[in-house]
């Protein structure tokens, strides 16, 4: 149920139908490795580039109070609450190509991506 305050609608997590966030087995193995020594892995976004957002991954000693916990393929990770509408429905993969390795985000919410691959828009 939406709350109306001075013409602005606010929604809670319970008001939405969420698709969740999942990881592939390769991403789960990488998240597990990054979680060693008692750290947690947290995904979020930041304003960046020519199209709007860039993905951010951090290792933290503990999640923030508003972070949302996910479990997929046997690993636990967090998504920053304010980034959840952007991440919703995303499958996160981890790919190694030669000396390069990175998380890959299969995000159904992305409408545009910049040519250099540094940012995306929804």
Give a topology summary.
Elements: E1 3-5, E2 8-10, E3 22-23, H1 25-34, E4 40-48, E5 52-60, E6 68-72, E7 75-79, H2 84-87, E8 91-97, E9 100-106, E10 112-113, E11 120-121
Keywords:
single chain, 122 residues, mainly beta, 4-stranded mixed sheet, 3-stranded mixed sheet, 11 strands
Mean pLDDT: 83
Instruction: Report the order of strands and helices.
Output: EEEHEEEEHEEEE
Ranges where pLDDT stays below 50 over 5 or more residues in a row are: 1-8
Could you estimate the helical fraction of the residues in percent? Answer: 10-25%
Sheet/helix structural class? mainly beta
Shape summary: globular
Radius of gyration: 16 Å
Major sheet: order of its strands? 5-4-7-6
Helical element count? Answer: 2
Number of strands: 11
Strand % is: 35-45%
């Amino acid at each position: 149920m939406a709350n109306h305050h001075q013409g602005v609608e606010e929604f809670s997590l319970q008001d939405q139908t969420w698709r969740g966030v999942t990881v592939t087995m390769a991403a789960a193995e990488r998240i597990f490795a990054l979680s060693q020594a008692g750290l947690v892995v947290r995904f979020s976004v930041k304003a960046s580039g020519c199209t709007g957002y860039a993905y951010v991954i951090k290792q933290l000693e503990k999640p923030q109070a508003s972070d949302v916990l996910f479990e997929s393929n046997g690993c636990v990770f967090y998504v920053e609450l304010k980034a959840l509408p952007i991440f919703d429905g995303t499958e996160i993969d981890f790919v190694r190509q030669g000396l390069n390795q990175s998380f890959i985000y299969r995000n159904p919410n992305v409408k545009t991506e910049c040519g250099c691959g540094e940012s995306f828009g929804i």
